[in-house]
Design brief:
Helices cover 37% and strands 27% of the residues. It is an alpha+beta fold. Strands 2-1-5-4-3 form a 5-stranded antiparallel sheet, with helices on one face. Helix 1 packs antiparallel against helix 5 (108-120). The N and C termini lie far apart (34 Å).
């Protein structure tokens, strides 16, 4: 069954020049990549995507476990990692994480607002995240 929210992100990769790639990581015994979509002009390889997955593996495992903190404030919905050459947006679902790779030289506010607003439908998140 296709994930409608992920289909929205896939469309964003195709039309937004600030997004380099998007894919899902299914959480479980073996985290695996699914639904990889690369922007046409992105110079990113599947090997690079796999290195990102391996580097974030511990974070993915933590997202899949329930803690006392989660019971108090709820499940983490999204998180941004900013590096010199790339931004990584993690959108957290119950059993998967949607990973969006964003160019680092773009407006963080505008790009992330657009992605999350489009993904969650505007009524679920604040009008401005920043």
């Amino acid at each position: 069954m296709p994930d409608i929210n992920y289909d929205k992100i896939k469309h964003f990769v195709q039309v937004n020049e600030n997004i380099l790639a998007a894919f899902t990581i299914h959480l479980g015994k073996e985290d695996y990549i699914d639904d990889l979509n690369l922007a046409e002009d992105a110079s990113i390889t599947k090997e690079f995507i796999n290195k990102i997955r391996l580097s974030l593996q511990d974070i993915f495992r933590d997202l899949g476990t329930s803690t006392d903190f989660n019971k108090i404030v709820g499940r983490l919905r999204w998180k941004i990692y900013e590096f010199d050459q790339i931004r990584i947006l993690l959108i957290c679902e119950k059993d998967q994480v949607v990973v969006v790779l964003i160019k680092s030289d773009t407006s963080l506010c505008g790009t992330v607002d657009n992605i999350l607003g489009y993904y969650f439908e505007a009524e679920d998140i604040p009008k401005s995240l920043f």
